[in-house]
Write a structure and sequence with these properties.
hydrolase, ASL1, single chain, six-stranded parallel β-sheet, GH, 36% helix, 9 helices, two-stranded parallel ribbon, globular, alpha/beta, hydrolase activity, Glycosyl hydrolase catalytic core-domain-containing protein
Length: 320
């Protein structure tokens, strides 16, 4: 009789393990929009499920939407707008009531904000640090995922010499491997000991290799989004991008069409559609090497209960 019970429980466990991986539908409040566009047409499509809670536009430019706006001081070129008495950061805070601001964009890249760590620290102390006294949380400059990014942030904090309040680390990630993505984020969290915001990420090969297919992108998004939803130290994330033109990034990453319609990938991102992945079996290792995660905490609890029951029954069987 003990063997019969064990066999039945094993079948039950196998059935639970076969649940489809739809972790991205969990309403964690972490998902955001990197882009903007027309609030009445483009952005409103991403509010249907309640999963998306915030957005940013790499600037002080905002749109009329119920989503929380997060301002960014992109770099030196935006200082004049940031300090404008009628249309700058203080006016934005009064109008949009953000809870956080973002620092400079990819400062170690010559094609982006292009700042030395000392320049970044000086800019931070002058234009961003004062906002801490107003109750806003301050997000670090967001480096690209080139190897120089982590070093730049470390040197930036050294140059700050204790004068920069950095409440969370912002970062970007462009590559094609979900396992490497998870390791990259874990390393940043371990290194800086702060929560993370992934303010840009996509399945994009910048190393002259093949680009992801649409199915690969769907699987990469599903696995990386599920990973971030499961980590309490990942506070927010925004896919690149909710834009009509991705500016040279793999078009399979697009969440909007050229005329502003949400794509299948966009529907997946907000949890309104099943991921159209490349077909890895649920619960197995996908093409990017990251095991799929449970559909919900409930299914995980069921697995834990079944595992515990099996261990207890096996112990009982050994005593009989």
């Amino acid at each position: 009789m003990t063997l019969t019970i064990l066999f039945s429980l094993l079948l039950s466990t196998a059935h639970v393990s076969a649940l489809p991986t739809l972790a991205a539908t969990n309403l964690t409040g972490k998902a955001g929009i990197a882009g903007g566009g027309d609030a009445a047409t483009d952005m409103v499509q991403f509010t249907a499920t309640g999963k998306v809670s915030w957005y940013y536009t790499w600037s002080l430019s905002s749109v009329n939407t119920e989503l929380e706006f997060v301002p960014m001081l992109w770099g030196a070129k935006d200082v004049a707008q940031w300090t404008d008495s009628s249309d700058g950061i203080n006016a934005t805070i009064a109008q949009r009531k953000p809870t956080a601001v973002l620092g400079m964009n990819e400062p170690q890249e010559t094609g982006q904000s292009n700042l030395t760590p000392q320049e970044g620290a000086d800019m931070w102390k002058t234009y961003i640090e004062p906002l801490h006294a107003q109750g806003l949380r301050l997000g670090s400059p967001a480096p690209s995922s080139a190897p120089s990014g982590k070093t730049w942030l470390q040197d930036f904090l050294t140059a700050c010499d204790g004068g920069c309040t950095v409440d969370f680390i912002a970062l970007h990630y462009y590559d094609v491997n979900a396992t490497a993505f998870a390791a990259y984020l874990t390393d940043f969290h371990d290194t800086f000991q702060r929560p993370l915001w992934v303010t840009e990420w996509a399945c994009q090969n910048f190393n002259n290799g093949p680009q992801c297919s649409a199915a690969d992108v769907a699987e990469f998004l599903n696995q990386t989004q599920a990973f971030m939803d499961a980590q309490d130290w990942v506070e927010r994330y925004a896919w690149y991008g909710v834009l009509r033109n991705l500016g040279g990034v793999n078009t399979a990453d697009a969440m909007l069409t050229g005329d502003g319609k949400i794509t299948d990938l966009g529907e997946q991102y907000i949890g309104a559609a099943v991921p159209k992945t490349s077909g890895a079996a649920p619960g197995a290792t996908g093409s990017f090497g990251l095991p799929s995660l449970p559909t919900s905490s409930a299914s995980g609890m069921v697995r834990m209960w079944l595992t515990s029951s099996l261990i207890s029954l096996l112990s009982l069987a050994c005593l009989m």
